[in-house]
Description:
alpha/beta
Amino acid sequence: MSDHLEKAAQDTRSGEPMSGQEGEMIASRLSRIRIVLINTTHPGNIGAAARAMKVMGLSSLHLVTPKIFPNAEATAMASGADDILQSAVVHESLGSALDGCPLVLGTSARLRSLPMPMLDARRAAGQALSESAAHDVAVLFGRERYGLTNEEMQRCQFLVNIPSNPAYSSLNLAQAVQIIGYELRVAAQGFSDISVPPLDWEPVDDGQMEGLFEHLEQTLLDIRFLNPKQPRRLMMRLRRLFNRARPDQNEINILRGILKASQEMSERDKTK
Ligand code: SAH
């Protein structure tokens, strides 16, 4: 934790009022954490999510292809948080919402068939807050009816679960935003027991990772390692591998160089 945040944490624990500078530090860290709502059906949920965010000091709301937005119901549910709705960025694709984010967290009520690194909400908030010192972070929330798709989950470094009743684990969307927002606030104010050390390298962002995966898939087709008729779960497994590794720019350049050389070699073989 940085000195300012550590001081703010000590002050809040001891009941000392936080200084303006410390408050600003917390606000700036939270402002780097994007709340991304994907394909939301009910505009009321978008409004309620905006309110949940504002109460916790989050300000960056991104909406990917919302069904209905802007809308009076969203504004009504936002109550005093219509500024968050007004500054919400609407995207046509998930990629544009994740532009510039090296850490993407996907919230999920269910555990999926392909195991992915999982964090509970508290640990995820610690991770997000720690990384927000260095770069932007995105937290994804799925549709009301069926959550995040497998493709959307594969864009994530971690899935995040809010501990709940296993027999009935699905929270309302805005309530899930509220709990994640609360955990981020707790982490920012230093109340959390979880301390995540800063990364000592800078992972590339989502766009660079997608560039790697496209190049990798094309190369595996070119060299006939990947059979398009029977792809199995190869790309899914490779995505998981590189999402765990979180390569930096140098490593991406090396990997893409290897892919390019393999493609050139297979091209030369074909013309022989
Ligand atoms: N029926 C869907 C859940 C949709 S709830 C499903 O089973 O996946 C809408 C969104 O709220 C989810 O996509 C997720 O982003 C969030 N959410 C709801 N309950 C959650 C939980 N227990 N843990 C983490 N996220 C949750």
